[in-house]
Amino acid sequence: MAGLPKEGWAGISYEDFVAATDNLAELSPFIEKVATSSAATVLLEGEAGSGKNLVAALIHFKSRRARCPFVEINCASVPETLI
After folding, report:
1. Which tens digits make up the pLDDT trace of 37-50?
2. What separation in angstroms does the CA of 26 have from each of 8, 44, 55, 59, 72?
């Protein structure tokens, strides 16, 4: 993601992102609801460049799993035989 510090997501504030655009501000209640739920899996769909990785990171860092590593997986790059 452009503009992300070289250390990655570490030190990035949730509030910084939610305030960055109106679209993220609209998603804020959804992100809060999903992050505090007991759901083990969340599927985010959208066009390339739509910010799915950002929303995934925000959900992760607001959840009870925030102390665990955040690992991004691009499902399009996973061979069909492994899915």
Report:
1. 988 788 888 888 87
2. 24, 16, 12, 14, 23
